[in-house]
Amino acid sequence: MADIRPFQCVRPDQSVVSRVAALPYDVYNRAEAKVVVEKDPLTFLAIDRAETSLPDEVDTYDPQVYAHAKELYEARKADGTFILDEDRVYYIYELVMDGRSQTGLVAVSSIDDYVNGVIKKHENTREDKEIDRITHVDTLGAQTGPIFLAYRADAVIDEVVNRVKQSEALYDFTADDGVIHRVWKIAEPTDVESIEKAFASIDAIYIADGHHRAASAVKVGLKRREAAGRTANSTASTGVEGRDGESDRIIESDYFLSVLFPHEQLKIMDYNRTVKDLNGLDKDEFIEKISECFDVEEASGQVSPDKKGTFGMYLEGKWYVLTAKPALYEGKDVVGALDVSVLQDYLLGPVLGIGDPRTDKRIDFIGGIRGLGELERRADSDMKVSFSMYPTSIEELFAVADAGLLMPPKSTWFEPKLRSGIFIHNIDE
């Protein structure tokens, strides 16, 4: 049973929301982030990456960076950039990209559900990447980057969301990249109760994107719980029942900021690969070796695979279609049967010598949003060969998480990206 709660939101004033809303902190390097902040200091990136307004010699992870982020956040609340909603509600968040809409529910999710496996993950996290966001969240006393979650669609939740979307939006703006963002508030008590009860009947929620942010938020919550001498949240798996007494008061740090999407709304894009060399082989030797496991056919133009088991390959100015032989999928578990696994296990590893794609400097990954032209450009410049992939499906993601397994690195690419700064969850008591 999932414990997904309404919350008291800190959010931008309507007059500045389009300026505040920012792409996630980790899509930029320091130099890129500094350019964005210099262009408009009101962007939330100034708080997410507070080093951008400090001297360049200050290390990105210096304690003064987090202290400065706290100063900026408090100043923005004081000057009216951010306002605090009085009631505990859910929000609807719609994103429209290239004419395609996806609509999620903004809420807070239980850290106990994460610990106990109700909220399922499909990637490992690295402690060094967590420390930055742990310090940021703990210093601000606020969660600023929502975690992208998915669930199997529910008719009750759909009905409330679709009905409320017929009313006037709280926010409606188009970002610089052309993505439309719309927000509605679900404040009617009966609707709030219906949604909370509906989630209480759902036994699995899935992290789609934001594994490191989720792990960081959970660790901050557990740290604060331990410091207060508290045990696990007693209402974490009981939904709306048993919450009317003072002993059942919601502890904000027991929950983390989330946007939850029904599975049918989501589209996973391809996450493509490019490799620096042919591992000492010439072109003919390389094609001969990969032909042992793949049927190789020269194509007349760019190859965007249209079904599982097929791959595009760009090499020396030509595109090829690679079709995995059926035997490659026989006897495989849900991870081994992923196309990203098949390419790694039968081509990138044994032929090109890419042993660990997480650490090997000879391979790079290119999100499908950048197009096949980027694969050509890289192979024609600093790399040698590129591969286009058929996207991993949301059903495959669910199956891997349900099995308690982990996906290979760079298996999924979600677009559009959730903006930071539109919704903030205060965790200081």
Mind explaining what this structure looks like?
- About 3% of the residues have low confidence.
- The protein contains 13 helices and 21 strands.
- A hairpin with a 5-residue loop joins strand 9 and strand 10.
- The two termini are 26 Å apart.
- Strands 1, 4, 5, 6, 8, 9, 10, 11 and 12 form a nine-stranded mixed β-sheet that branches.
- The chain has 429 residues and is α+β, with helices and mostly antiparallel strands.
- Helix content is 30%, strand content 23%.
List the helices and strands and how they pair.
Blueprint: E1 4-5, E2 9-12, H1 17-20, H2 30-39, H3 45-48, H4 63-78, E3 82-84, E4 90-97, E5 100-110, H5 111-116, E6 119-120, H6 127-140, E7 142-143, E8 147-151, H7 155-164, E9 171-174, E10 180-186, H8 189-200, E11 205-209, H9 211-227, E12 255-262, E13 268-269, E14 271-275, H10 283-290, E15 294-298, E16 310-315, E17 318-324, H11 339-348, E18 363-367, H12 372-380, E19 385-388, H13 394-402, E20 413-414, E21 424-426
Helix pairs in contact: 4-6, 6-9
Question: TL;DR?
Answer:
By secondary structure, the chain is an alpha+beta fold. It is 30% helix and 23% strand.
Mean pLDDT score, rounded?
93
- Percentage of residues assigned to helices: 25-40%
Q: Please report the total strand number as a whole number.
A: 21
How much β-strand is present in the residues?
15-25%
Largest sheet: 9 strands, mixed
